[in-house]
Amino acid sequence: MSDNRPIVAVVGRPNVGKSTLFNKLAGKRISIVEDTPGVTRDRIFTEVEWLNTYFTLVDTGGIEPDNGDVILSQMRNQAMLAMDMAHVILFVVDGKSGITAADKEVATMLRKTKKPVILVVNKIDSQKQFDNVYDFYELGLGNLHAISSANGMGLGDLLDEVVENFPKGLNTEYSEDIIRVAITGKPNAGKSSILNNILGEDRVIVSPIAGTTRDAVDTYFEKDGQQFLLIDTAGLRRKSKIYETVEKYSVIRSMSAVDRADVVLIVIDAQEGITEQDTKVAGIAHDEGKACIFVVNKWDLIEKDNKTLGNYTKEIKEKFPFMMYAPVLFVSAKTNQRMNKILETVEYVASEHAKRISTSALNDVIGEAVMLNQPPSDKGKRLKIYYASQTDIKPPKITLFINDKQLTHFSYQRYLENKIRENFGFEGTSVRFEYREKNRR
């Protein structure tokens, strides 16, 4: 299920400062911090290091035990899942507002976990407010820490106790072999359903309300010895529809999720077809040089004949001519149709994205391509390719040593790229070219 690293869950009712504490410990802004109860709705994961000990910190949706609202009830389930998977739980309460009935109910839930629970009294910004702290012993959770997440007061002692409570033998090192996968696309295309299907559990809130996933959610996952980091992103919306500051954060986060990924799944709603948002996220992923897979979801809802799949594939290739390299999968997260192909294809394109080919093999292919089709010439001067070398991976970069950059032409580069792909594959990834003029003495 995970990479066997200690997991610390931050739980508590809405608006007690959980996300502010999370961001302070993470050292960067990850959770949305907004003075609106219920803004953090899914669990948010980040990597934290304290005194050379690494652990995973999980921010949860606020718990409101008696609220029957569909989102808030699922937030409660999310927090319970986080508590179930955590090794240490930080229970955050508001030192300014005092104990509430919800705090007492959450404390009752936490005592049943039989796990180390650290009571964190937040918003204690001055010595004068310290007298408020003692009331919280009534929750029956033992020792507590008075902190101010906003100004960082008390965090060192808190982290010391967190680390002391880790079970022995857990891994605090990171694997270099993790494949990072961003699941992107427009709101309500089924991204969270795809993630849940892959994981085999309801790890992310799934709701028919478009835009349910506001935060990017990181989930570690292992299958057949291969570790994955799955990033479920907030769907990209048209800029004209972004009124709330919360939505602005979400768009930025979707772009940063692509930036962090090795492989990007571009999820398309089969019924709605290709949208402007799909084009935008695909363009971002291509420009960033990520390995890409088009995943057409809700395929079970499409009426089909023997040409439907071929026509849909052709339409995608026509809309994304710059991404002819990207495989197209037709799936249904709801009925499980072809879902097993997703991770299989992710592993394949990740290996293609990181593939290196030898200089001798590359030059054999380039030499043969030049013999079959001479490079372009201008005013009697012809492009000469002296030799080629692959100089980078993720994405693969081919450096061509030539006589004159002004003689290069996009159509000939495309010809060379096609020949390289015919021989070496590189499916699922762009191939970049760099030209260097060889100094002649």
UniProtKB/TrEMBL annotation:
<feature type="binding site">
    <location>
        <begin position="297"/>
        <end position="300"/>
    </location>
    <ligand>
        <name>GTP 2</name>
    </ligand>
</feature>
<keyword id="KW-0677">Repeat</keyword>
<comment type="similarity">
    <text>Belongs to the TRAFAC class TrmE-Era-EngA-EngB-Septin-like GTPase superfamily. EngA (Der) GTPase family.</text>
</comment>
<feature type="domain" description="EngA-type G">
    <location>
        <begin position="179"/>
        <end position="354"/>
    </location>
</feature>
<dbReference type="InterPro" id="IPR006073">
    <property type="entry name" value="GTP-bd"/>
</dbReference>
<feature type="binding site">
    <location>
        <begin position="59"/>
        <end position="63"/>
    </location>
    <ligand>
        <name>GTP 1</name>
    </ligand>
</feature>
<feature type="domain" description="EngA-type G">
    <location>
        <begin position="6"/>
        <end position="170"/>
    </location>
</feature>
<dbReference type="InterPro" id="IPR027417">
    <property type="entry name" value="P-loop_NTPase"/>
</dbReference>
<keyword id="KW-0547">Nucleotide-binding</keyword>
<feature type="binding site">
    <location>
        <begin position="232"/>
        <end position="236"/>
    </location>
    <ligand>
        <name>GTP 2</name>
    </ligand>
</feature>
<dbReference type="Pfam" id="PF01926">
    <property type="entry name" value="MMR_HSR1"/>
</dbReference>
<protein>
    <recommendedName>
        <fullName>GTPase Der</fullName>
    </recommendedName>
</protein>
<feature type="binding site">
    <location>
        <begin position="12"/>
        <end position="19"/>
    </location>
    <ligand>
        <name>GTP 1</name>
    </ligand>
</feature>
<feature type="binding site">
    <location>
        <begin position="185"/>
        <end position="192"/>
    </location>
    <ligand>
        <name>GTP 2</name>
    </ligand>
</feature>
<dbReference type="InterPro" id="IPR015946">
    <property type="entry name" value="KH_dom-like_a/b"/>
</dbReference>
<keyword id="KW-0342">GTP-binding</keyword>
<dbReference type="InterPro" id="IPR016484">
    <property type="entry name" value="GTPase_Der"/>
</dbReference>
<dbReference type="InterPro" id="IPR005225">
    <property type="entry name" value="Small_GTP-bd"/>
</dbReference>
<feature type="binding site">
    <location>
        <begin position="122"/>
        <end position="125"/>
    </location>
    <ligand>
        <name>GTP 1</name>
    </ligand>
</feature>
<keyword id="KW-0690">Ribosome biogenesis</keyword>
<comment type="function">
    <text>GTPase that plays an essential role in the late steps of ribosome biogenesis.</text>
</comment>
<dbReference type="InterPro" id="IPR032859">
    <property type="entry name" value="KH_dom-like"/>
</dbReference>
<dbReference type="Pfam" id="PF14714">
    <property type="entry name" value="KH_dom-like"/>
</dbReference>
<comment type="subunit">
    <text>Associates with the 50S ribosomal subunit.</text>
</comment>
<dbReference type="InterPro" id="IPR031166">
    <property type="entry name" value="G_ENGA"/>
</dbReference>
